[in-house]
Amino acid sequence: MALLDIYTYPDPVLLQVAKPVTTFDDTLRRLLDDMAETMYVAPGVGLAAPQVGVSLRAIVVDASTRDPNSHLLKLVNPEIIFSEGRSVCEEGCLSVPGYTAEVARPAHIRVEARDEYGKPVTIDTDTFLATVIQHEIDHLNGILFIEHLGRLRRDLVKKKLKKQARQEKSPKKKAVVA
Question: Is the keyword Transferase in the record (predicted)?
Fold first, then answer.
């Protein structure tokens, strides 16, 4: 397994709708394993393929830090087929480092997906796992959690992140000693 680079806003791959997975092979399984390792090291509770620069509809989630009945899930082509209620949870994101905010989402969801071998999987949850899965599915649709914020706060966060990205890309000036 290998650690992958986590892309951060405003990288364009984060703003694209990811393509459905059509081939369930060793390459996909290796990607999911690498994503899981990267998520744990980061540390995080979820990671979507676009966050590691791969525009495919694949996510890994493990909400066991807050939900003892949870475990690592590798979900391919996940779709929310049912949702109800409302829950507010403090969210952060590995692709939006240094920012957290309360986000309202449906409290109860049912998701249909495929596992890493292409077998159908259905998940019905009303725990923290529901929030994590919804957050990661948003990534597959080119949506970051900051899009759920009010316009003023969202624009401020985006402006700061863009400025930070420009500063990181600009060449470092060497100090001149006279």
Answer: no
Closest residue by Cα to residue 2 from 46, 34, 41: 34
Distance CA 175, CA 178 (A): 10
In terms of C-beta density within 10 A (0-12 exposed, 13-18 middle, 19 or more buried), how is residue 87 classed?
middle
pLDDT tens-digit readout, 5-35: 999 999 999 999 999 999 999 999 999 999 9
Does pLDDT of 134 surpass 70?
yes
- In DSSP notation, 115-130 reads -TTS-EEEEEE-SHHH
Token duo for residue 41? 């090291």
Catalytic hit among 84, 102, 116, 136? 136
93 marked among binding-site residues: yes
Query: What are the structural domains, with CATH classification, of the chain?
Result: 12-168 (3.90.45.10)
H-only helix segments in the chain: 26-41, 128-140, 151-169
pTM beyond 0.90: yes
Annotated catalytic residue 136: yes
Q: Which residue is associated with the tokens 């990288």?
A: 11
